[in-house]
Amino acid sequence: MSISLDFAWIEAVLLASVRMVAFLVIAPPFSYGAIPVRIKGMLGVALALAVSPRLTPGYESFATADFLIALVAEILIGAVLGFLVMLVFAAVQSAGNLIDMFGGFQMAQGFDPQSMINGAQFSRLFHMTALALLFASGGYQLIFGGLVRTFSALPLGGMIDFTAPAEAMTHGVTQMFLASVQIAGPLLVVLFLADAGLGLLSRVAPALNAFALGFPLKIFLTLTLVTVTFVALPQVVSSLTNDAFEQMMGVR
């Protein structure tokens, strides 16, 4: 009995799985530390097998040296795409960081080894909420769809042009800060007005020591009004998912 192996198909699946795994290790929601690396690897191989019918037709095998170069190129492509998605969803974490800073929670920050975040309560809470919404709303499926479509824009074995990713990262950083301010904007305005009111009160009645009352007042306002931001988070995550899809499609 003889078994014939299609080495071109094996190479195509291997290259596709390498791009998939590099993407899953960096991009949310799959980059969360509670998901084992073995599961990420198995998921990457499964996705590569699922998309293999559209990748293998017309694929030609590489020589050994060229195959190693293509392997490194696929790792870079997956890492760049994953970083672009991570950059988009970092806006939610940044919004929580702003709330921690203006609300007085920043002094109680700690490191979360699961999400690899060094922040206070709302930074980690917003990050976990965004991940939960991605799974609950099916947004991860849109991210998967964008990743699969990148094989049409960036075929297997092709080298990425780093001009477009650099421009996308520059634009993404700007949009991240803008989105974080927009998400936390209403609460930040209230906290700023509270600081201004306490400043005026300390000028009118210096003996009252208004700033001693500032910490519990700002904490109370933050815990009371943060629900306004949470109500808007599903729409925010949906919009960020579309932005992440467009970022991946913009890489050539």
Automatic annotation (TrEMBL):
GO CC term, one of those recorded: bacterial-type flagellum basal body
GO biological process terms, semicolon-separated: bacterial-type flagellum assembly; protein targeting
Superkingdom to which the source organism belongs: Bacteria
Subcellular location: Cell membrane; Bacterial flagellum basal body
Keywords: Bacterial flagellum, Cell membrane, Cell projection, Cilium, Flagellum, Membrane, Transmembrane, Transmembrane helix
Coiled-coil spans in chain: none
Ranges that cross the membrane: 6-27, 67-92, 125-148, 177-198, 210-233
Pfam families registered for this protein in UniProt: Bac_export_1
InterPro entries: FliR, T3SS_IM_R
Topology relative to the membrane: Multi-pass membrane protein
Family membership noted in the UniProt record: Belongs to the FliR/MopE/SpaR family.
Role, per record: Role in flagellar biosynthesis.
Official protein name in the record: Flagellar biosynthetic protein FliR
